[in-house]
Amino acid sequence: MASLRAAVLVQTALGDELREANGSLVLATLEARTLRDAAEGAHRRQNEFLAMLAHELRNPLAPISLANAMLVRLPEPSIELLNLHAIIQRQVLHLTRLLDDLLDAARISSGKISLLRSPTPLVDLLRRSVQTVQVRLLERHQQVQLDLPEQLIVDGDAVRLAQVFSNLLVNASKYTGDHGLIRVAARAHDGVAVVTVSDNGAGMDADVLASVFDLFTQGPRALARAEGGLGVGLNVVRNIVELHGGTVVGSSDGLGLGSVFTVTLPLAAEDGVVAVLPGPSPMPASRRILLVEDNPDANDTLTRLLLGEGHLVTSAYDGVAGLALARASAFDVLICDIGLPGLDGYQLITQLRKTSGAHIPFAIAISGYGQVEDRMRAIAAGFGQYLVKPLDADALLALVSSSAVSRFIAAAARPR
C-alpha cells in the first residue's frame, strides 16, 4: 500500500513537472515568436527608412545635377566653368552610387531584388561599364587595358550586371594609386564566361580577403586618400552574381601587390550570335511638354533645360493644377513627379487616362524611389517610362526627342 502511494506521489510529481515544462515551452515559443515579429518589424522599418532616406537625398541632388548639366550648355563656357562642371558631376555620381549601393544592400537582405534576364552581350556590357567610370579613371590618370573576345552572350540582367562590373572597377580605382593600371579580361571556359578585373594597387592581406565581400567591410585606405565608400559595394556584387547562378572571388599576393576579382557567369543556352545594331539617331523634335514637379528648384531648372532644347514647356507645381492643365490643353509629353501634393503622380496619370479627349500620348514618371515595385506600379498606372532622380539630363532629352515618342504622338494623332 505504501509503495502504491509512493508511486502515485511520484507520478503526480512527474505530471506537475511535465505541465510546468509544457508551460515553459509555450511561454518560450510565444517569446520567440514575439522576438521574431519584433525583428521582422525592425527590419521592415529599416528598409522603409532607407528608401525614404534615398528619396529625400535624391530630391536635392536632382536640381543640382540638372543645373550642372546646363552649365556646359551655356554659350562659350570658359575652361574654369568646365572644370567646375566636371567636379560637380563627379561628386553627384559618387553620391548617387553610394545611395544605390546602400539601398541595394537593404533590398538584397530582405529578398526584394529581382532580375530581368535575357541573352546579354557581355563584351558590350563590359565596355559600357568602363565608360561609366571613365571620369574617375581620367581624374586619377589611371589606365584600363581590355582583353575581350569578339562576343560572349550571358543569360543575365544587363542593368544589374553593369552594376557589378562598375562596382568592381570603382573598387579597383579606389585602391590603386594615381597612374595605376587596371585590366579587364573575359573568356569562355566550360560553359561559363570568366571575367577578371585586376589592378596593381594596394592589394589585400589574408584577413581582409576572408571578409572582403561581407557587408560594411573596407580594405586599407591611406589617410591621404580620403575618398571611400560605405563598405557595401562588393557585398552587392557577390549577391547579384550569385542571383545569376555565378561566382565571384577575390585574390591578392599581399599588401602592395594588387588584387584580382574573378567573376563567372553562365553563358546563354543558345549559341547564336546576338547582334546589337545601333538605331538611327533621332532627329531633333520640338515637343509640347507639361512638367509637373513640386520642388521649385527642380521644376525651374528642368524647365530651362527643356526650353534650351527648343521644346515648349508648361509647368505646374502640384498634382491638382497639373491634372487641370493636362485636361485643358493638348501636350505631346507629360513629365510628372510621383510625390506631389494634392494628387500624387499615380493618381494624376490614372485620372488623366480615364479622361475622354485628354491628349498626352507619352508620360514620363520621375521619382526619388528606385525599387522595382515602384517602377512596375508607375507603368501599370499609365506612364510609358520611369526615371529615378537625380536625372541624367542627356538621357531625358534623348528620350523626349526619340523616335519612339514620335511614334506614340503619331499614333495618338490618327483618327479613330
From TrEMBL:
<keyword id="KW-0808">Transferase</keyword>
<dbReference type="InterPro" id="IPR005467">
    <property type="entry name" value="His_kinase_dom"/>
</dbReference>
<dbReference type="InterPro" id="IPR001789">
    <property type="entry name" value="Sig_transdc_resp-reg_receiver"/>
</dbReference>
<keyword id="KW-0597">Phosphoprotein</keyword>
<keyword id="KW-0418">Kinase</keyword>
<feature type="domain" description="Histidine kinase">
    <location>
        <begin position="52"/>
        <end position="269"/>
    </location>
</feature>
<dbReference type="InterPro" id="IPR036097">
    <property type="entry name" value="HisK_dim/P_sf"/>
</dbReference>
<feature type="domain" description="Response regulatory">
    <location>
        <begin position="288"/>
        <end position="404"/>
    </location>
</feature>
<protein>
    <recommendedName>
        <fullName>histidine kinase</fullName>
        <ecNumber>2.7.13.3</ecNumber>
    </recommendedName>
</protein>
<dbReference type="GO" id="GO:0000155">
    <property type="term" value="F:phosphorelay sensor kinase activity"/>
</dbReference>
<dbReference type="InterPro" id="IPR036890">
    <property type="entry name" value="HATPase_C_sf"/>
</dbReference>
<dbReference type="InterPro" id="IPR003594">
    <property type="entry name" value="HATPase_dom"/>
</dbReference>
<dbReference type="InterPro" id="IPR003661">
    <property type="entry name" value="HisK_dim/P_dom"/>
</dbReference>
<feature type="modified residue" description="4-aspartylphosphate">
    <location>
        <position position="337"/>
    </location>
</feature>
<dbReference type="GO" id="GO:0005886">
    <property type="term" value="C:plasma membrane"/>
</dbReference>
<dbReference type="GO" id="GO:0009927">
    <property type="term" value="F:histidine phosphotransfer kinase activity"/>
</dbReference>
<dbReference type="Pfam" id="PF02518">
    <property type="entry name" value="HATPase_c"/>
</dbReference>
<dbReference type="Pfam" id="PF00072">
    <property type="entry name" value="Response_reg"/>
</dbReference>
<dbReference type="InterPro" id="IPR011006">
    <property type="entry name" value="CheY-like_superfamily"/>
</dbReference>
<dbReference type="Pfam" id="PF00512">
    <property type="entry name" value="HisKA"/>
</dbReference>
<dbReference type="InterPro" id="IPR004358">
    <property type="entry name" value="Sig_transdc_His_kin-like_C"/>
</dbReference>
